[in-house]
Amino acid sequence: MPAVEIYTTPFCGYCHAAKRLLTQKGVSFSEIDLSTQPDKRGEMVTRANGGRTVPQIFIDGRHVGGCDDLYALDRAGKLDPMLAP
Fold first, then answer.
1. How many domains does the chain have?
2. For a disulfide at 8, which of 15, 18, 34, 66, Cβ 3.0-4.6 Å?
3. DSSP letter string over the chain?
């Protein structure tokens, strides 16, 4: 299974929606909570090519965007192949 990382904050509805989709697909992920690790925000912005909002999602180190992007990949049938082992 590919490594999935998601930068989040606790009160972000989009973060919860993205994590819910990943969980429904049986995908384990590493969560970087910016409320408890604020020093990681700069890392996120750099990795996300300037993206400052949460969530920011990475699959095997590849930036896929935020929650809307994740759902768009799923609707297009492109997410499952990215998550396949």
1. 1
2. 15
3. ---EEEEE-TT-HHHHHHHHHHHHTT---EEEETTT-GGGHHHHHHHTTT--SS-EEEETTEEEESHHHHHHHHHTT-HHHHH--
CATH number of the domain encompassing residue 20: 3.40.30.10
Domain ranges, residue 54: 4-83
Beta bridge partners of 6: 31, 57
CA-derived radius of gyration, the chain: 12
pLDDT tens by residue, 45-69: 999 999 999 999 999 999 999 999 9
Tokens in use for 76? 């297009």
Report the pLDDT value the prediction gives residue 9, as an integer from 0 to 100: 98
